[in-house]
Specification:
The chain has 15 helices and 18 strands. By secondary structure, it is α+β, with helices and mostly antiparallel strands. Strands 15-12-14-13-17-18-16 form a seven-stranded antiparallel beta sheet, with helices on both faces. The chain has a five-stranded antiparallel beta sheet with strand order 5-6-10-8-9. Helix 8 crosses helix 10, helix 8 runs antiparallel to helix 12 and helix 12 packs antiparallel against helix 13. The longest helix is centred in the last third of the chain and has 21 residues. The two termini are 17 Å apart. The structure holds flavin-adenine dinucleotide (FAD). Flavin-adenine dinucleotide binds next to strand 3, helix 5, strand 10 and helix 11.
Length: 476
């Protein structure tokens, strides 16, 4: 991507005009125009970068409305940004323009324990929501590994999740309503204050997962869940990845739904051996982390039900982490896998496909075949209970043959996923990284409808242009 400091399409005069409109509303301290300062707001975890012309820090819904109105009138692209931890380039301002950072919209507005909900501004960190909810005996289910550094706005815009989605669902299932500002600078309120409601179209679920292309979210009413009385974490060690994947299927067919069911493949098992003090048998080639929550009295039976499903000739051992330290260590190791992969290869292409759990074993097997065919290391781990696997292709980007092989291999991974009736992203979204594959995943009539909806919310196409749809259609 361009690393230009300046917008090529827009002259400095228009940006000065914008600054003059915004300065009285926001104050100088909430506007950055120096390219050196704007620079850090041009990236996300995709490592793509493009410098914005201006970065603004609104504190309220009303200030967001003023910013969107000005960008709309002056035809300037606007990208909402939480903390830039997304992995698909969705927060990268590829057409320069304005980055609207929600860093200063970080207030918990209200906690209503009687109705089990919390209202927050979008810049609140996921971890803050969890800590606040915990004080009242609740939690909010979406729990990305990046919880300590990612915002609720980003979680909603990507429909982010994590291990708990298997039992409690994603951001979509755990958000009651939103306040937002559309691309036409219209303030909207969606959804309900109640846990049921069927009045009109479900705009809340439409905005969730829309990656900042339809509206800027300024407030969210989050549905809270009571903390379980107890939790137990089990570790099942297998000789083969296929046996572990088949156990996932059996676990998901019985009534004790785990609150996490994570799959870890051979390459990751080796990484754990090399980078942690956890000891694993020499013939271990796959792990399942299985967490069960619920009432204390029911726990022995629940754990036994899981143990029964985990049985297989290839099962080496299944044990329960019996101290809080052991639980923390296992989760830390699982969550460290993604960053660790960055250390063992110059580049990792990190996908998050989803396949029906019945195809999990076949999918994992096929990726091993593709790894051999294309001479690329492929590492798989993830939220197996949902069939959501992080497929990581580890490559050297300076090797043109490997880069080509990775492209071809990825195409096959996606084709296989869709053939199995899976989908291309479970939680990271499309951004720019996967927009070229959108037409493979969505049938033409549905795609056309989505593009029409985009135009209704944002007729001048100023909101996060070039994301999700790789269409050349653009105004900004
Ligand atoms: C180490 C690591 C681990 C991760 N683990 C997980 C994981 O387990 N599960 C998972 O799902 N993801 C994970 N992620 C990805 C990432 O953390 C999530 O996608 C997260 O939700 C992004 O939040 P953010 O605040 O950084 O958003 P950003 O990256 O800043 O933005 C993401 C998208 O949201 C839009 N956006 C942000 N705020 C708003 C708003 N107020 N209104 C409208 N649009 C908005 C942006 O325009 C962009 O399209 C991980 C990332 C890292 C680096």
């Amino acid at each position: 991507l361009s690393t230009n400091n300046h917008s090529s399409a827009r002259d400095r005069e228009t940006i000065e005009q914008l600054i003059n409109i915004l300065r009285p509303q926001l104050g100088d301290e909430n506007i950055l125009s120096d390219p050196n300062e704007c620079w850090t707001y041009g990236y996300d975890n995709s490592r793509l970068h493009c410098c914005p012309d201006l970065v603004v820090f609104p504190r309220t819904h009303e200030e967001v409305q003023v910013i969107v109105q000005a960008c709309h009138d002056l035809l300037i692209p606007l990208v909402a940004r939480g903390r830039g931890t997304g992995t698909t380039g969705a927060a990268v301002p590829i057409r320069h323009g304005v980055v609207l950072s929600t860093e200063k919209m970080d207030r918990v507005i209200e906690v209503d324990p009687l109705n089990r909900l919390m209202i927050v501004q979008p810049g609140v960190l996921n971890e803050t929501v969890q800590q606040t909810a915990k004080e009242f005996g609740f939690f909010w289910p979406p729990d990305p590994s990046s919880a300590s550094v990612c915002s609720i706005g980003g979680n909603l815009a990507h429909n982010s999740a994590g291990p708990r989605a298997i039992k409690y669902g994603t951001a979509r299932e755990n958000t009651l309503g939103l306040r937002a500002v559309t691309g036409q600078a219209k303030a909207i309120q969606t959804g309900f204050y109640t846990t049921k409601g069927t009045v009109g179209f479900d705009l809340t679920r439409l905005l969730i997962g829309s990656e900042g292309t339809l509206a800027v979210i300024t407030e969210a009413t989050l549905k809270l869940i009571p903390l379980p009385e107890t939790k137990s974490l089990m570790r099942a060690i297998y000789k083969t990845m296929q046996a572990a994947a088949q156990a996932v299927m059996r676990i998901m067919q019985q009534p004790v739904i785990p609150c996490a069911l994570e799959f870890i493949d051979t390459a990751c098992v080796n990484l754990i051996r090399e980078n942690s003090s956890i000891s694993l048998p020499p013939d271990a080639n796959a792990l399942l982390l299985i967490e069960v929550d619920g009432m204390r009295a029911a726990m022995p039976d629940s754990l036994q039900a899981i143990r029964d499903c985990a049985q297989a000739p290839e099962l080496i051992a299944i044990d329960t982490a019996n101290t809080p330290q052991a639980v923390t260590q296992l989760w830390q190791v699982r969550k460290a896998l993604s960053p660790l992969l960055r250390d063992i290869a110059p580049k990792k292409i990190n996908e998050d496909i989803v396949v029906p759990v019945s195809h999990l074993a076949e999918f994992i097997e096929h990726t091993q075949f593709l790894a051999e065919q294309y001479q690329i290391q492929i590492v798989n781990f993830g939220h197996a209970g949902n069939g959501n696997i992080h497929v990581n292709l580890l490559i050297d980007p300076n090797d043109p043959q490997q880069t080509k092989n990775a492209d071809d291999c990825l195409r096959e991974v996606f084709a296989l996923t869709l053939k199995m009736r899976g989908t291309l992203s479970g939680e990271h979204g499309i951004g720019i990284a996967k927009s070229a594959f959108l037409t493979d995943a969505i049938e033409p009539n549905a795609l056309a409808l989505m593009q029409q909806i985009k135009r209704v919310f944002d007729p001048k196409m100023i909101l996060n242009p070039g994301k999700i749809f790789s269409s050349s259609e653009q105004n900004t």
